[in-house]
Amino acid sequence: MVFFFALFLGIKKRIEVFLVAAFICLYPAFLDNYSFGIDHITFALADTFALIGIIYYKRKSGDQIRAISLSICFFVLALASYQPKISLIAFLCICYLLTSFTNLHNKHLFSWKHLLLKFSSILSVFFGSCLIYFLSIKLTIVTNIGQRTHINTLTELTNELLSAYSSFVSYYTIDSDYLPLQLRFMPIAIIFIGCLALIYRASRNHISLTPVVSVLLLLVPISLRLSYIINNQTWEYAGRITFVNCYALIFFISSVLHIENLNKFIRFIIGLFLYYFIVIGTQESNAAAIKTVYDLNMINRISSRIESVTPNLYKKKYALVVIGHYPSFDRSRYVKGNSKNAPHVASFAFESYRQTEILNYFFGRDILVRPTNDQMRRTIASAKDRQSYPASDSVYLIDDEIIVVLLENHTENSPKTWIDVQ
Questions:
Q1: Which residue among 4, 80, 142, 399 is the one 20 to 30 A from 22 at the CA level?
Q2: Residues 174 and 253 in one domain
Q3: 234 & 359 share domain
Q4: 102 and 243 share a domain?
């Protein structure tokens, strides 16, 4: 996918293609993809589909019907792979217009008709793919799955639109904590120089393109936050979602990279970024390995306690109720920064929705099941006067039917093992 993006940006020199590829693959947000044993392939495919769609549209723009239809197909595949890729698709559409209007090698006689045709064509691709995907999920998803299907109200949408610019500036300045404090201005400075370079090239093509390109540049922050503008329950600071900001940063870097007098300096800047990417990547890798050992040992201790209080554990099935979380792993001891591109591996492993499956894996057989509503009520009533883990009575049995693991003192908002809905 990285080579597709380099191709889209018109980067052809081997060293520059290598630098772009390394930048994308080592970018801190990309580390989140490695948190998923299988889904990381889907994330990569989603990016690839989006990039193929825009490259095909760019190359076949002379054949409008074919270009639009096939690009829509690729964009729909990207959305079907992972919904938040709508931000990447929107950003690539803006990139296409920006590169078209600022390409000094393809000067053409300016006309508003030609301009409107370009806008209407790319908008039809974007909104067409979104509409087809929306209709497809309406036909296939018949149940409410919470935050994943939420769509903002008009008020929520307006609030997210207004906050898009402050979020954009924050992400490329104070939130760039994968860089030393003294260098956190560097991403926004490069973006600013890139914007000036694009506006200058647009003015050289035709002065009327200057306000057009300026408006497109103002749409970039909105495109990068489009997932949140549509659904404000989208996970904040998840690397697989914030990764679109990497494409934006590379796009503006490439726009400066084409300036001959700044070429070597920008290569040096990319190299500087890569150094800090490698440092934070090494820290994240070590932290993930240590956290895996920590989680395995904590869950193993819980399973051992369950065995000690349940004599007939392997002879029948028991309902499992886990209340609360065990102490979280202190990632900050091993990773200095990268808080705004957090990988999923940093999240709590023994979550409520997969506790029975995890413990069954440790026991080597399916002996634990999710509780019913009645069993959950009985458990909550019994937990009020007990001490939490690792107290001796924090793991106990109710009526030789329910195994209770009290990791925290029970409150109304304590996380609990998901109830069996069947």
A1: 80
A2: yes
A3: no
A4: yes
Residues spanned by the domain of 361? 284-406
> How many structural domains comprise the chain?
2
416 domain-assigned: no
192 plus 312 within the same structural domain: no
Q: How far apart are CA 48 and CA 414, in angstroms?
A: 41
| Alpha helical stretches, state H, 172-243 | 186-205, 209-224, 226-230, 239-242
Position 404: which residue type? Answer: V
d(CA 383, CA 207) in angstroms, rounded, equals 73
Q: Is residue 272 part of a domain?
A: no
Q: What is the pLDDT along the chain (422 residues), one digit of tens a residue?
A: 677 888 888 888 889 889 999 999 899 988 888 777 667 788 889 999 999 999 999 887 667 788 899 999 999 999 999 889 999 999 999 999 999 888 766 555 567 778 888 899 999 999 999 999 999 888 887 666 666 677 888 898 999 999 999 999 999 999 998 999 999 999 999 999 999 999 998 888 888 889 999 999 999 999 999 999 998 888 888 888 889 999 999 999 999 988 878 888 999 999 999 999 999 999 988 998 999 999 999 999 999 999 988 888 888 898 999 999 999 898 888 988 888 887 777 788 888 889 999 999 999 989 999 999 888 888 888 888 888 888 888 899 888 888 888 888 888 888 999 887 65
Are 239 and 340 contacting, i.e. CB atoms less than 8 angstroms apart?
A: no
**Terminal-residue alpha carbon distance, the chain:** 42
